[in-house]
Amino acid sequence: MKFFVDTADTAEIRDLAETGLLDGVTTNPSLVHKAGRDFLEVVKEICGIVPGPVSAEVVALDHESMMREAEVLRKIADNIAVKVPLTVDGLKTCRKLTADGTMVNVTLCFSANQALLAAKAGATFVSPFVGRHDDVGYPGMELIADIRLIYDNYDFPTEILVASVRSPIHVHDAAKIGADVMTAPPAVIRQLFKHPLTDNGLKAFLADWEKTGQKIG
Ligand code: E4P
Question: Domain residues of the chain, as ranges?
């Protein structure tokens, strides 16, 4: 499963990229607002940090205006994935952009039928939001399992990008289902490395090593 980080904070992205485990980045208008920086400038910087797909979202609602914004975004770098909402105009834009060889991430997906439409529109990625589903009392992971089944039934190449990830449990469940990608906030990615038994075990090993009085090299 590919790991994308869901942030527009370039310091966080640089830090996580150093682990060598980061495959891409997702941003959205709310994350850009939080970063407090010029959108095009920050996206360009991110594209230079991570060679994998960097999602940058259009904000227009009609197809023609989306295409105009996408033109600006896709010129930023070769690793831009234009993010479009799961609407009729968004999917029209998706079809046009992917036919031209541009990566497209169809976002705000909340049903398996919407994911089916995104795949038929040639989306590179579809982003079902699990956390927001959980928030309203619907088990978000069931949606991921349904989409996996449907995409496998028809060999759709669209990658399932599990979004709105809120905890390591989401990551674990998404991997068991066979999602292609997950995008999570930096704090959740950092939590994945952690286990109290790892910390305790390391402490005990180092204490015993100290008693041997030896050194390596
Ligand atoms: C990613 O592409 C989404 O925009 C993001 O994961 C949404 O997460 P949230 O529901 O925590 O805002």
Answer: 2-212
For 3, other C-beta atoms within 10 Å of its C-beta total: 18
Query: What is the dotted CATH code of the domain comprising 2-212?
Result: 3.20.20.70
Taking the centre of ligand 1 as the mean of its atom positions, its distance from the CA of residue 184, in whole angstroms, is 8
Q: Provide the pLDDT confidence category of residue 1 given band limits of 50, 70 and 90.
A: very high
CB 25 within 8 A of CB 17: no
Task: Summarize pLDDT for 52-99 with one digit per residue, the tens.
Answer: 999 999 999 999 999 999 999 999 999 999 999 999 999 999 999 999
Mutation pick for ligand 1 pocket among 43, 183, 188 (CB with most ligand atoms within 8 Å): 183
d(CA 61, CA 16): 33
Q: Measure the N-to-C terminal CA separation of the chain; round to a whole number of Å.
A: 37
Please calculate the CA angle 73-78-81 and round it to the nearest 5 degrees. Answer: 55
Residues 6+ apart with CB under 8 A from 123: 94, 98, 104, 105, 106, 158
